Structure formats: C-alpha cells, structure tokens
Amino acid sequence: RGLRHKGRKREPEIPAVARVVTIPGCCLPGQRGLLQALLHYPTVPTEVWGLPIVQAVIAFKWRKFGRRYVIWEFVFYLLWLSTYTIFMLLLPSVQTHAEELAAEGGPGGSASALYGTSSAVCASLFLCLSFCITIRNVISEGKQVLAAGVKEWASSPW
C-alpha cells in the first residue's frame, strides 16, 4: 500500500522479484554461443526466440558488440562510396584533358597529360583510398570465412 503525501495520489505498490539465471557460455562469440546453437538446430520452434533468456542474450550482444559493429560497417561503406564516387566524377575531366593534349600533340602525349593535372592527382588519391577500403572489406570477409567455414559463410544470407 503506497505512501500518502500531501497533494499526491496514492500509488500502488507492486512487488517484484529479480533473479539471475546463470547459463555458462550463452554469450560466447561464434559457433560456441547459444544463438548459433539455436540457429543450426533444425527443429527449434520459432517461439524460442521470444523467450526472455534468448532476448536477453540478443540484447546483451547488441549493446556490447553489434550496434558498434553495424555503425562502423556503415561508416566504412559511406567512406568507400564517397571516395569511389569522387573518383568517378573526376575521371571524365582527366580523360577529356588528356584527349585534348593528345590531339594538340602536346609534350609527352596523353601520359603526361593524365598524370600532370591536379584533377588526375585527386582522382588517383581517391582511387587509392577506395582500394584501401576495399582491401579492408576483403580482409573482414576472410576473417568471417575462417571463423565460420566456407560452407557456412557461403550459405549465410548475411
């Protein structure tokens, strides 16, 4: 029965019980954790994913790792997309300038024109950045293949 204060309504008391249930290894990463075991067990009913312990494991992994990982992947994707887009936008002006110099019979031909302009230098820089980010993504995928195995990695929709 709630406490009465002047000017306040009476608020009900609700008894609550908090319990800690220890399930060793339920939050382990990779194939050893609870979620992977549930994913690969063919006869697990879908209602299992609504159980409080499974929801708690998902929430814990999202808070500790998943959210940050998704944000970093999104940032790297935007960075790659930006660098590649800028490279593709600069490329036509580099090609046009090279063709003009080659048509005029300029010194060194088109190679001199291609590497001598500031837009060519910028385009090369953005191409290198895009390549570095692509290498990072390939390494990340390689780590996933090593962790999950080729068959599991290839069959995963993610």
From TrEMBL:
Keywords: Membrane, Repeat, Transmembrane, Transmembrane helix. Signal peptide: none annotated. This is Uncharacterized protein. The chain crosses the membrane at residues 70-93, 113-135. One of its GO terms (cellular component) is plasma membrane. PANTHER family: INACTIVE (PTHR10582:SF2), TRANSIENT RECEPTOR POTENTIAL ION CHANNEL PROTEIN (PTHR10582). One of its GO terms (biological process) is calcium ion import across plasma membrane. GO terms for molecular function: monoatomic ion channel activity. It comes from the Eukaryota.
